[in-house]
């Protein structure tokens, strides 16, 4: 479904307001997972509710990729995203999780975004020692 909106300034949140009737018509609840497309650039997100308004976050990277700026009026194509979110864990992290049943159970109970945070921290390490420390830290955090 398509609608037009204005790219809002960064405070309190750079984003796009979604008309309530669009959210309702999507049929995914008040905060549905969606795929957003602007000017041919697509990304996945979730509709947020802030101060009674339905909003889509618009990061600097997505703003640049879609070639939009604060104050621009844009056409937004919004689709309900029903595909399961999959976080792919690196093999060394999988081994560490499998070696610790308590950490594995805690990790399996996390939301996709929290899992993604752990994976991103591990994969962003530049040195093997840093990566190893980050895996150990993740396991310790999950055990706590």
TrEMBL record:
It holds the Pfam family DUF1905. It comes from the Bacteria. It comes from Actinomadura citrea. This is DUF1905 domain-containing protein. InterPro entries: AF2212/PG0164-like_sf, DUF1905.
């Amino acid at each position: 479904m398509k609608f037009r909106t204005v790219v809002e300034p960064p405070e309190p949140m750079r984003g796009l307001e979604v008309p309530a009737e669009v959210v309702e018509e999507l049929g995914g609840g008040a905060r549905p997972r969606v795929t957003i497309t602007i000017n041919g650039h697509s990304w996945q997100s979730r509709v947020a509710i802030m101060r009674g308004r339905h909003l889509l976050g618009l990061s600097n990277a997505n703003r640049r990729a879609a070639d939009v700026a604060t104050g621009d009026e844009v056409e937004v194509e919004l689709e309900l995203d029903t595909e399961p979110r999959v976080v792919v864990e690196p093999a060394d992290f999988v081994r560490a999780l499998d070696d610790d049943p308590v950490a594995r159970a805690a990790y399996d109970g996390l939301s996709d975004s929290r899992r993604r945070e752990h994976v991103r921290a591990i994969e962003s390490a530049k040195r093997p020692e840093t990566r190893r420390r980050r895996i150990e830290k993740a396991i310790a955090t999950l055990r706590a």
